[in-house]
Specification:
Number of strands: 9
Largest sheet: 6 strands, parallel
CATH topology: TIM Barrel
Number of helices: 12
Helix content: 40-55%
Number of domains: 1
Shape: globular
Radius of gyration: 18 Å
Bound molecules: zinc ion
CATH superfamily: Metal-dependent hydrolases
Structural class: alpha/beta
CATH class: Alpha Beta
């Protein structure tokens, strides 16, 4: 089967745990993906919230070097792509297409010059914030709102010019609507699920409330559908459902919620592999074909499953890059 995954943290894990992309004990490796036909993978350089300014720049450069060396070591199997034509040629050579992203605008260290530099490295998607506030805006854990900053708006407009896709996963609600008002092109929520499907009894005092803050409410989902963006379903256990109810059936529920709202053309997968705890049913890129079979067994037609797992993501990147 074909698979287009909008988000994984594998490169960061490779650097931190001295793993290799070719074969490792994590969720994603070249070996684990070998049953896939066309495979496009967005690899994020994850920016922890404790790094800002010069420290964030150094951290980014270090993880980027790991990405660069893993691409070189695995050049027989996967290649860093910066255009749709690149991706097509990878597929025709039987290779996987890697897309580089940054999870956290702190990598810009508050500088448009740094954004221009990151663009020259072939970064094609930037998640504006992680959970805390950064120079661009307020993440989902920032209390008492706070949306995009003036620099955040400036950076977003420059990303539009550079054809770097904006990603609103992790962003607070006000920041989402600020981005909606500011971006001249559709954006993505690369790895975010639906608030409405999670346990509605979760209160702000509850540990699990984080999963509500990290998920999209129906107004946000409707906006992404209207504007022609993308929503990548996240496999993180607590964003899917309660313990023990966070496997295939939970993925089915989140997908159905977005399909019921008319989102057939914006649904994709943002697995979050190597970035979070995942139910054993879903815990690895080798499990993706079984998930697709499960969705078909629940009545989803081949065309819809094909859109979710590959076509919507690929079409969006073809239009945007
Ligand atoms: Zn994330």
């Amino acid at each position: 089967m074909d698979f287009f995954d909008l988000h994984c943290d594998t490169v960061t894990e490779c650097r931190k745990k001295n793993r290799r992309l070719f074969d490792n004990d994590g969720h994603l490796s070249v070996c684990k993906a070998n049953s896939l036909d066309r495979w496009a993978q967005v690899f994020a350089i994850w920016m922890p919230d404790e790094y800002r300014g010069e420290n964030a720049v150094e951290y980014f450069d270090d993880i980027h070097e790991c990405f660069r060396s893993e691409m070189a070591d695995n050049s027989l199997y996967i290649r860093h792509c910066t255009s749709a034509a690149d991706m097509e040629s990878c597929f025709s050579e039987g290779k996987a297409a890697a897309v580089l992203s940054v999870e956290g605008g702190s990598a810009l260290a508050g500088s448009i010059e740094r954004l221009n530099y990151i663009h020259t490295l072939g970064v094609k998607l930037i998640t504006l914030t992680w959970n805390a506030a950064n120079e661009l805006g307020a993440g989902c854990l920032v209390k008492n709102v706070g949306g995009l900053t003036q620099f955040g708006r400036q950076a977003l407009r420059r990303m539009n010019d550079l054809k770097i896709i904006a990603d609103v996963s992790h962003l607070g609600r006000k920041g989402f609507w600020d981005a909606a008002g500011c971006s001249s092109v559709p954006f993505v929520a690369s790895h975010s699920n639906c608030c409405a499907v999670l346990d509605k009894t979760r209160a702000p005092s509850d540990d699990k409330y984080f999963s509500m803050l990290r998920s999209l409410d129906d107004e946000q989902i409707k906006f992404i559908i209207r504007s022609g963006g993308l929503i990548g379903i996240n496999f993180c256990n607590s964003f899917l459902g309660d313990a023990g109810d966070d496997g295939f059936e939970a993925v089915y529920r989140h997908i159905c919620h977005i399909l019921d709202m008319g989102g057939e053309d914006v649904l994709a997968v943002g697995s979050d592999f190597d970035g979070c705890g995942i139910n054993p049913e879903l815990a690895g890129i080798d499990k993706v074909p079984a998930l697709a079979d499960y969705l078909k067994s629940r009545g989803m037609d081949n065309k819809t499953v094909g859109k979710i797992f590959f076509d919507n993501g690929f079409n969006f990147f073809k239009t945007m890059l």
